[in-house]
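Researcher: Please predict.
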Amino acid sequence: MGVPLSLPLSLFLADIRGTRERALESLLLSALSPLIIRTYHPRTLLQISLQIVEAADHTDATALLPVCINAAILALIDSGTPMKSVLVATTVYLDDRGEVAEESNASSRHVLGFTRTGECVFVKSLGGFDERGFGNAVQWGMRECSMDEEEGMEVDRKSETVGVVVRRAVERKIAADMRWKE
């Protein structure tokens, strides 16, 4: 038996065992695995455990997908796991005309994940849509996942994007970790 050359990765959703949850675990692994640098610590096991405390809709695994991706990314950052990039995920809903809509008026749902550089590296779509509508979803998702604050953007919690919230959480983590230097 040879020496392992890459870090084994395990992910599971705690206390939930069903087909939908297995599908969610598989989607999460496909989103996270390419970002983790697995050759730095080949003889260790990286196990990601997510606990879903409350969810409005347990019947659709993709409804929980962006929340689980963002939680897992923050946990990986907090643990100091070496990664190629940070992934931020969001959900975009489209109406019948391919325009961004509220969930109640949506004919399709798109879970999109973008890296720090704005590269779309994860897509999971449900429902009917055309190419133009998908382009609208990608543009909207890219803005929502952007970690850069636009100049003149108000510091109002309601207007913060998912990317900005993730970036601020990472900044707080770094500031707390660097307090020993003071």
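Model: The two ends are 48 Å apart (CA to CA).
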